[in-house]
Amino acid sequence: MVNQVLPAKYANALFLAAKDLDQIKKVKADLEMILKIFKENPEFEKVINHPGINKENKKQIIKEIFTSKINELSLNFLFLLIDKKRESLLTKIHDIFTERVYEYEGIKKLTIETAIPLSLKEKQYFAKEMGEVFKKKINIDTKVDLGILGGIIIRDKMTMIDASLKQFLNSLKNQIKETKVKKQKEIKKIKKNRQKVKTGGKNANKTRRNYKHN
């Protein structure tokens, strides 16, 4: 696990600068776009993170690609990371910066891991109920893990939420199980109807053959 201290130092400094310039949302969007470009172009990311490539060459590449796409604060921050040889921390810095933004806006981010995907209605229900528990707006990140065996795990950052929410979680868990059972019944019903159609077709063909024979 990457040490959080150094990324947090840069993320907090960037957040304060963005706040002073009233550019929090813009900087957040810039970081997301930069990481998206890195993800879509892994070779480009390798060049920027490569310790053997000259700093000025890296900054020139960044300048050519991002000058017209991101604001000056975001661009200068990338230059700072290059000067300090901290380019590889960008993803972790983005994550911590985003957490600061959510805190500033009164939003709490939770991660829900379930054995089957949550429906939109279930997500909305969860956000509403958890919002009442934490007295904040809730941002939900969902993950599917078949190993949970029909259960549910809720994390606040990397910490699992404990038994203080047990009753609510059991209620949500039962809803998920009911949805799964309902879907399975629907699938069985469809298969059964298809079988009836096939059987009916065979019987009809048999009747026609008997009619011709007589």
Largest sheet: 4 strands, mixed
Proper CATH architecture of the largest domain? Orthogonal Bundle
The radius of gyration is: 27 Å
**Spatial order of the strands in the main sheet?**
2-1-3-4
Task: State the helicity in percent bands.
Answer: 55-70%
Count, helices: 8
What percent strand? 5-15%
Low-confidence stretches: none
Q: In total, how many domains does the architecture comprise? A: 2
Mean pLDDT: 82
Reported by name, the CATH topology of the largest domain is Peroxidase, domain 1
Provide an overview of this structure.
With 214 residues, the chain is of the alpha+beta class. The protein folds into two domains: 5-103, N-terminal domain of the delta subunit of the F1F0-ATP synthase (Peroxidase, domain 1, Orthogonal Bundle), CATH 1.10.520.20; 107-178, Glutaredoxin (3-Layer(aba) Sandwich). Helix content is 67%, strand content 11%. The protein has helices at residues 5-20, 24-40, 42-49, 55-66, 72-83, 90-104, 120-134, 166-213, and strands at 107-114, 137-144, 152-156, 159-160. The chain has a four-stranded mixed beta sheet, with helices on both faces. Strand 1 (107-114), helix 7 and strand 2 (137-144) form a beta-alpha-beta unit. Helix 1 packs across helix 6 (90-104), helix 2 (24-40) packs across helix 3 and helix 4 (55-66) packs antiparallel against helix 5 (72-83). The N and C termini lie far apart (81 Å). The model has no long low-confidence stretch (mean pLDDT 82).
